[in-house]
Amino acid sequence: MSSSAKSFTYTLVASVVTFGLMSALVTRSSVTKGPGIASFAATEEPVKKKLPLKYIYLSFDDGPLHGSDRIDSIVKAERIKISVFLVGRQLQVSKQLGEYVKMYEENPFVESYNHSYSHANSHYQSYYKDPVQVLNDIIKNEEALKLHFKIVRLPGRNIWRVGNRKRDDGNSGAAAADTLAAHGYTLYGWDLEWRHDPKTGKPTQTADSIARAVESRLEAGGTFTKDHIVLLIHDEMFREELAGNELYQLIRKLRSHENYVFEHLRFYPTKP
Ligand SMILES: [Zn+2]
Q: Less Cβ around it within 10 Å: N or C end of the chain?
């Protein structure tokens, strides 16, 4: 350090102490990093403008499916955390899909959660008539996929059981959700869905429109927990490269907000 830089540092520390602030050490190190006053201004500026953090939970349902491999490589490249809700019966479809479960397991940015073994065989009304059957189906999935966390999304239902808070979607499933909660499971629904055509798997909304919807929902405070938004996306949407590009676009648009944080659902707050 040159003697003039040193004397500038001491003068600054002295004035900070005079004003009774506790951040003298931090201030001194930021000054000595660069050449003089200009760098001081540059390093201090972002602190003043700090915005409240907003948490984004990208959650992908129904995997393993063709499309899971593309999601896996995109989140690895972008280094963002995502949550996947897996369906164990897919293991019976092909060995390849079993490999995708391992691929997710080995990806440090992915956490795998429980979407039931059977996905209700797509007969939701009769499935939810028997809460014990639902519980057993969840346990079966946990064992088949060797899942580490008691975190569930019910098939075909947007139902929440988080801490003492609950929300139902008006369909059957509330009694099954209560049974699961009584057995220590946390259930997540979603605040916003990125829609797709169930026949072709293709997204029917662009990354741009979903990014704008995320921004406005967070702005309006219309989510289950303020400043936290859960997005529902489906693995089957990314069978084709074009849709993969849309996922890249969505991630890049969201991360252009410096106060947006991608997090795993395991860290979703239990209190509002
Ligand atoms: Zn599903």
A: N
| Cα 245 from Cα 236, distance rounded (Å) | 14
pLDDT band of 49, cuts 50, 70, 90: low
Contact between 161 and 177 under an 8 Å Cβ cutoff? The reply is: yes
Distance 152 CA to ligand 1 centre (A): 11
Q: 78 alpha carbon to ligand 1 midpoint, in Å?
A: 25
Residues in the 5 Å CB sphere of ion ligand 1: 61-62, 155
Smallest CA-to-CA distance from 84 within 117, 120, 57, 66 is with: 57
Pick the CATH number of 54-267 from 3.20.20.370, 3.40.50.300, 1.20.1270.90, 3.40.390.10: 3.20.20.370
Q: How far is the CA of 115 from the centre of ligand 1 (A)?
A: 7
182-241 pLDDT, tens digit per residue, is: 999 999 999 999 999 999 999 999 999 999 999 999 999 989 999 999 999 999 999 999
Model-level pTM?
0.82
